[in-house]
């Protein structure tokens, strides 16, 4: 029997993890609106999940006026970083590791959440349909196409955000959000990138922004403290690509030059429309630590790790309702069921009130 399973330790970049149960990034909208400062209830929420091998936080804004969820946190102001430091200290006090997922929403941002500021993207094409998560029912608007100079400025914003996270807020590293139809993914996919300059057209051009961000961030904090997340077939935010296998192959091959801590791949289409799985493409061409995500059961995750198909598994929704998920997995306990109506609202309901195991009653 293989000794590799969810509970086996693993070296991930600069860090030794106690298990391979990763907490996936989960937008929860518990920061303050407008100034996007983490709140006290977030300290308890993350600290309660410190038994995970690694916690990856919800997406956090790298610059003002780019909100897509109204009350997601940021990592660009002193006030935000001060409050995040309370979170990382609490997680570390319990022996946990925590990375911050940093992002730019691009065309998924909405002027209504950003004092009327326009949203931007690779190309001036709007997302089809309503916003995800935000408290108001709004339809997406047409973004403005970024200039070459603006792209370079955003690259540097990613680097500054990464430095803020590690050197000020005390995070163990960062995950760059390259998935689910946000700005980096908007450059990667040809449904949202119709540019005719050096950032559009060929695979080399469409991945140029991603690799420039990776270069800047790894130079800022070290490659072994950096991960990146991709969603090869996710239809979220109107995303699609004419040849997802070619795109996955190119990224998985070229990204080896960065010697990252890990690559994190969402294997499924969360909308349930597409059924292909390009996680094996990353396993074939990417030489580093590969984290899989997408509705894994504990048993399937164990098997995938044992077979070498992936190195660790990120669990999302199960961590929402089960702060003690690692313990529940260890003793094969039943899991609490999450309440989707509380995913993107303020307050402790559906956040810090899920019951933990009572061992005195077992």
**Largest sheet, described in full?**
8 strands, parallel, barrel
Structural class based on helices, strands and sheet pairing: alpha/beta
CATH level-1 class: Alpha Beta
Q: DSSP strand (E) fraction? A: 5-15%
Instruction: Estimate the global geometry from the Cα principal axes.
Output: globular
The overall average pLDDT, rounded, is: 95
**Low-confidence residue ranges:** none
Q: From the alpha carbons, calculate the radius of gyration and give it in angstroms.
A: 19 Å
Keywords: Oxidoreductase
Family: Belongs to the NADH:flavin oxidoreductase/NADH oxidase family.
Protein name: NADH:flavin oxidoreductase/NADH oxidase N-terminal domain-containing protein
GO molecular function: FMN binding; oxidoreductase activity, acting on the CH-CH group of donors, NAD or NADP as acceptor
Overview of the structural elements:
It is a single chain. With 362 residues, the chain is α/β, with parallel strands linked by helices. It has a single domain (10-312), classed as Aldolase class I (TIM Barrel), CATH 3.20.20. The chain contains 11 helices and 12 strands. The chain has helices at residues 40-47, 78-93, 148-168, 183-188, 203-206, 208-221, 244-254, 279-285, 298-306, 317-321, 325-330, and strands at residues 10-12, 15-17, 21-23, 54-61, 98-103, 120-121, 144-145, 173-178, 226-230, 262-266, 290-293, 312-315. The strands form 3 sheets. It has an 8-stranded parallel β-barrel with strand order 3-4-5-8-9-10-11-12, surrounded by 4 helices. The longest helix has 21 residues, at 148-168.
């Amino acid at each position: 029997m293989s000794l590799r399973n969810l509970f086996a330790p693993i070296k991930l970049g600069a860090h030794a993890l106690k298990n391979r149960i990763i907490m996936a990034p989960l937008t929860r909208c518990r920061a303050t609106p407008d100034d996007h400062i983490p709140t006290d209830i977030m300290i308890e929420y993350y600290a309660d999940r410190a038994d995970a091998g690694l916690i990856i936080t919800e997406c956090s804004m790298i610059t003002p006026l780019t909100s897509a969820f109204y009350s997601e946190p940021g990592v660009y102001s002193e006030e935000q970083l001060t409050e995040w430091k309370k979170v990382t200290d609490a997680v570390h006090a319990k022996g946990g590791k925590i990375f911050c997922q940093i992002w730019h929403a691009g065309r998924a941002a909405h002027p209504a959440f950003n004092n009327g500021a326009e949203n931007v993207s690779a190309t001036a094409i709007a997302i089809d349909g309503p916003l995800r998560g935000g408290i108001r029912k709004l339809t997406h608007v047409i973004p403005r196409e970024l200039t070459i100079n603006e792209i370079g400025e955003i690259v540097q914003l990613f680097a500054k955000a990464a430095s803020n996270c590690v050197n000020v807020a005390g995070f163990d590293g960062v995950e760059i959000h390259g998935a689910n139809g946000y700005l980096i993914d908007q450059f990667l996919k040809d449904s949202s990138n119709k540019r005719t300059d050096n950032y559009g057209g060929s695979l080399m051009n469409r991945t140029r922004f991603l690799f420039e961000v990776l270069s800047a961030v790894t130079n800022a904090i070290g490659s072994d403290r950096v991960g990146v997340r991709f969603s090869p077939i996710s239809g979220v935010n109107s995303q699609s690509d004419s040849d997802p296998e070619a795109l996955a192959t190119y990224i998985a091959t070229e990204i080896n030059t960065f010697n990252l801590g890990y690559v994190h791949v969402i294997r499924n289409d969360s909308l349930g429309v597409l059924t292909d799985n390009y996680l094996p493409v990353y396993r074939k061409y990417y030489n580093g630590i590969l984290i899989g995500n997408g509705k894994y059961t504990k048993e399937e995750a164990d098997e995938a790790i044992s077979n070498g198909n992936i190195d660790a598994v990120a669990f999302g929704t199960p961590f929402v309702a089960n702060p003690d998920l690692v313990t529940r997995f260890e003793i094969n306990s039943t899991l609490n069921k999450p309440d989707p109506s509380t995913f993107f609202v303020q307050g402790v309901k559906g956040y810090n009130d899920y019951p933990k195991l009572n061992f005195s009653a077992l």
